[in-house]
């Protein structure tokens, strides 16, 4: 049976701490996040979790305990089998979207030769033969020539 767990906190840091403890405590998934301004003059954040009833119950309890160490808990709730209207009409407005996985990038190589290789791989123009000195040395050289 799928359950819905809610942990409502005051403040984002408290919510993140609660969510971290919850997902570490049991096999649950964070499905949503809701931020509301105005709870006691602060930001109220509700974390939504899902999983089987026992896991969600355990996760909500662990999240609540951790959040109380950091900040303030407004409320917690475990709904054993949320009605489809709750999922479709309420929770869908706050569900986290997983657009796509981040693109994997190759680690950059170090050193002058590697710098040129990294630029070539990224499509940047590479100046293979450097004929002038650094800008600081060039400016000093120009100033010395003007003085002479």
From TrEMBL:
Name of the protein in its database record: BMC domain-containing protein
Segments of skewed composition (Polar residues): 124-135
Main location per the UniProt record: other
Location of the BMC domain: 3-91
Family (UniProt): Belongs to the bacterial microcompartments protein family.
Gene3D superfamilies the record matches: 3.30.70.1710
Span list, region Disordered: 93-148
InterPro entries: BMC_dom, BMC_shell, CcmK-like_sf, CcmK/CsoS1_BMC
SMART domains: BMC (SM00877)
Keyword Transferase: no
